[in-house]
């Protein structure tokens, strides 16, 4: 791995010195990592997770190698419509994570802030804006974003349109869940499909969208089964695999390849032993780089994250006979849309299905809804008698996550879970006696 580390350091130095000349080096690193994952998969993790990380690295590397093959989006953009035109969706949040693999997030964030971007903007967005603004990353032909969850989406894409001339579609997602709201968003989705057809050629095929939603229904059902099995069996993986899974559920959902992967993981996990440790349900973003969290949740037989809510932020089957309305309902019903109390109820339903021993919510710095609503979720978990830990930090900017504080709080929480189990076992023994 020392060769990879040396290349990462080399790319970082070159990007800081000459950002406008660095794209080829960044892309080469992605391609080499894709090749490495195929021939030398990460040791100590399950075959399913090995395939997952290879798929996601290949998806990003192959897309970036062909600028005419993708559009930018936020994580909640309707990739199903984009796929109908043979295009991929590259989420700016996920791309920021990939740039972080070169430890470039601090340089890009500082570049964005020095250019006038507010320090309070989400660090995922600042990383991406800095990458584009510095000239390190080329721009695509088109982009799409939504108002869902993050109030920084529209401003970020407006800024990129103004600075780099990238035209984009903005999907205004209603808070209310009623027929008028569904119709309003469905019409926007139709217009988006027509805009893609006008820009990239061809005619939009609603039947093709229905077929993708059918695959999506199957994929979501399969993932629910996988999460159920992961709450029962030890399935070695790392923090970053939850990020990869979340990416797949938002960028590759609707593809046969991703459905086949989830089905493989279902069969693969059945070959692993029963899990007797503590089952953790994770809420919100995954700080995949954080050392303490890695030490406790990477291939650990004592503590296992069994699911992340962002991978199941929409749980309902869709009516494929009315694809635009079905997709509109899916987006409106997303647990990150509307009142935070709705999210608390949906996370509660997920917890009832998976029966975790505890829940951890990560409050990402700059994300107002995660911090502001965490107490509502904690109240819901108290009703269900599920212990909950709230961790503050940054999903991508290492400078905003203090390892010492996270370690102290996490270890105290896990110790409390262990003591609770010991006390419950003692009580059961006393009852037997």
Helix content percent band: 55-70%
Largest sheet: 4 strands, parallel
Number of helices: 17
First-residue to last-residue Cα separation: 55 Å
Unreliable spans are none
Q: What's the pLDDT, averaged over the residues?
A: 92
**Strand order across the largest sheet:** 2-1-3-4
Count of all domains? 1
Tell me the number of strands: 8
Secondary-structure element pattern, one letter each = HHHEHEHHHEHEHHHHEHEHHEHEH
Subunit arrangement of the protein: single chain
- Please state the CA-atom Rg, rounded to the nearest Å: 21 Å
Structural class estimated from helices and strands: alpha/beta
Q: How much β-strand is present in the residues?
A: 5-15%
Question: Judging from the principal axes of the Cα atoms, what is the shape?
Answer: globular
Family: Belongs to the FldB/FldC dehydratase alpha/beta subunit family.
Keywords: Iron, Iron-sulfur, Metal-binding
GO molecular function: hydro-lyase activity; iron-sulfur cluster binding
Cofactor: [4Fe-4S] cluster
Outline the structure in words.
With 433 residues, the protein is of the alpha/beta class. It has one domain. The chain is 58% helix and 9% strand. The protein has helices at residues 2-17, 23-39, 47-64, 79-83, 92-100, 105-114, 123-133, 153-164, 179-200, 206-230, 239-251, 256-269, 291-297, 323-332, 340-354, 368-383, 403-432; strands at 70-73, 88-91, 143-146, 168-171, 278-283, 303-308, 358-364, 388-393. Strand 1, helix 4 and strand 2 (88-91) form a beta-alpha-beta unit. This is Benzoyl-CoA reductase/2-hydroxyglutaryl-CoA dehydratase subunit BcrC/BadD/HgdB. Keywords: Iron, Iron-sulfur, Metal-binding. GO terms for molecular function: hydro-lyase activity; iron-sulfur cluster binding.
């Amino acid at each position: 791995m020392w060769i990879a580390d040396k290349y990462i350091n080399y790319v970082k130095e070159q990007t800081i010195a000459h950002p406008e000349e660095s794209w080829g080096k960044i892309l080469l690193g992605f391609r080499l990592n894709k090749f490495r994952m195929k021939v030398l998969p990460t040791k100590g993790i399950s075959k399913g997770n090995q395939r997952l990380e290879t798929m996601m690295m290949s998806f990003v590397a192959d897309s970036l190698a062909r600028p005419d093959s993708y559009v930018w989006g936020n994580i909640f953009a309707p990739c199903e419509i984009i796929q109908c035109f043979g295009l991929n969706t590259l989420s700016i949040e996920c791309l920021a994570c990939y740039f972080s693999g070169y430890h470039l997030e601090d340089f890009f964030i500082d570049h964005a802030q020095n250019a006038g971007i507010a320090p309070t903007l989400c660090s995922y967005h600042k990383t991406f804006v800095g990458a584009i603004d510095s000239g390190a990353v080329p721009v695509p032909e088109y982009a799409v974003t939504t108002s869902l969850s993050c109030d920084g989406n529209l401003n970020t894409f407006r800024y990129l349109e103004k600075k780099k001339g990238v035209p984009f579609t903005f999907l205004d997602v209603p808070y209310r869940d009623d027929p008028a709201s569904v119709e309003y968003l469905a019409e926007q989705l139709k217009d988006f499909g027509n805009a893609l057809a006008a820009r990239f050629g061809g005619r939009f095929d609603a039947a093709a969208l229905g077929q993708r939603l059918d695959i999506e229904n199957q994929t979501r059902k399969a993932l629910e089964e996988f999460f159920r099995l992961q709450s029962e069996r030890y399935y070695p993986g790392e923090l970053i695999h939850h990020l990869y899974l979340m990416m797949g559920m938002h960028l590759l959902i609707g593809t046969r390849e991703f459905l086949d992967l989830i089905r493989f993981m279902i069969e693969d996990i059945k070959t692993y032993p029963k899990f007797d440790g503590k089952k953790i349900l994770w809420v919100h973003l995954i700080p995949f780089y954080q050392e303490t969290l890695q030490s406790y949740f990477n291939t650990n037989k004592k503590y296992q994250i069994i699911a992340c809510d962002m991978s199941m932020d929409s749980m309902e089957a869709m009516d494929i006979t009315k694809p635009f309305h079905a997709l509109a309902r899916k987006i409106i019903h997303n647990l990150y849309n509307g009142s935070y109390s709705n999210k608390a109820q949906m996370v509660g339903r997920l917890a009832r299905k998976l029966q975790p021993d505890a829940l951890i919510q990560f409050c990402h710095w700059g994300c107002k809804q995660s911090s502001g609503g965490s107490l509502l979720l904690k109240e819901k978990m108290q009703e269900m008698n599920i212990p909950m830990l709230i961790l503050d930090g940054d999903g991508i900017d290492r400078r905003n996550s203090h390892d010492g504080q996270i370690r102290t709080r996490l270890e105290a929480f896990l110790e409390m879970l262990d003591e609770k189990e010991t006390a419950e076992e003692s009580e059961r023994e006393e009852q037997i006696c």
